[in-house]
Amino acid sequence: MLHPLGSRPAARHVVTSERFYPTRPGRHTDATYLTAAPSLRSALRACAIRPCAARASPICYALVLAPGPFDTTTKYLVQTYPRDWLDRLGLPTSASLHLLDADLATVNPLADKVIRVDEAAPWLAHLEFQSTYDATMGQRLAEYNLLLYGRHGLPARSLLVLLRPGADGPALGGMHTVGLPGEEPEFVFRYRVTRLWRQSAEALLDGPLGTLPLAPLADVETEALPDLLRQLEERLDREAAPAEATALKIVTFTLLGLRLPRELARALMPGVRTMRDSSTYQMILDEGRAEGEARGEARGEARGRAEEARRMLLLFGAPRLGQPDAATLAVLAAIGEPERLEQLGQRLHLVGSWTELLATS
């Protein structure tokens, strides 16, 4: 567990339900207080999650609802670094990997990411990410799992990744059962749960680039975040190509919004501050979470997925290809098929301009 220099390890924090409590008893810690704090260190101390002192208290930190396209960024990481994710989730493989269409048509909402693992006996890895608690997640994962088997004829391993403590709850024990009262369950479904805040921040810092942006959400004291982020950015600058480093810093900054208010996150990652003038970046931030946008009937699901793919394409295309002009934005807006937009995103590293990218479509 990372700790700030010169400090003693604090007791492990306990978080129950959706309630978080401020450092100073009885004082609500909101975004205004945090940004007005006399120093970055004191602001970080104010944001530190402390043990619950009184369960009946309704106080919640503003940081819990900090805006950000968390669903989009996690999907981008899996899409770009699938092998890194399988290694991190305990499923290492040397077999070839293929991303599959996660649109299960009639399912509401869509599955996050599905990877085909072409071992001697092929199988599927189905990844779901949650930043809020959903007591029905076990049932949803079971539905996805069976539908994936029906579509592809392959067994699927379902992996649930909880991004923050507020996403955890009693219903997420790794098993979903269905049966009549007083009888043995007729149906038993098991899934794996990874709680990021229990993962080693040091292991993530030393691990592959594809999971490096998760480090600020891992087991690290809030006051140690500046040093962790410094190490993270230094490694990206040292090991990644400039465009890749920029994209991964955007992802890190966005995920940091699950833990800190945006202004404090900007203070911790001043290099990202220059992107505030990017119309593409602002559009993605302001449109909020992508999770839940694909709800509705099948046609509405496809529209939601196309919007998500378009935002992802703009977010990670701008650092590599520059800001798209009005004509490019119009062409992208006219593409309604999510598969075409996702294919364009997968070709970003192969082209040098938006014109060249669209010419391949």
Q: Keywords, please?
A:
361 residues, alpha/beta, two-stranded antiparallel ribbon, 7 strands, disordered N terminus
What is the typical, i.e. mean, pLDDT? 74
Describe the main β-sheet briefly: 5 strands, mixed
Unreliable parts: 3-38, 49-68, 105-109, 286-298
Query: From N to C, what is the helix and strand string?
Result: HHHHEEEHEEEEHHHHHHHHH
Q: What fraction of the residues are assigned to beta strands by DSSP?
A: 5-15%
The strand order across the widest sheet is: 1-2-3-4-7
**Helical proportion, percent range:** 40-55%
The first-to-last residue Cα distance is 46 Å
Shape: globular
What would you note in describing this structure?
This protein is α/β, with parallel strands linked by helices. The chain has a domain at about 10-65. Helix content is about 40%, strand content about 10%. The protein has helices at about 30-35, 40-45, 70-80, 80-90, 135-150, 200-205, 225-240, 240-255, 260-270, 280-285, 300-320, 325-335, 340-345, 355-360; strands at about 95-100, 115-120, 125-130, 155-160, 175-180, 185-190, 190-195. A 5-stranded mixed sheet has the order 1-2-3-4-7, with helices on both faces. The protein has a two-stranded antiparallel sheet with strand order 5-6. Helix 8 packs across helix 11 and helix 11 packs parallel to helix 13 (about 340-345).
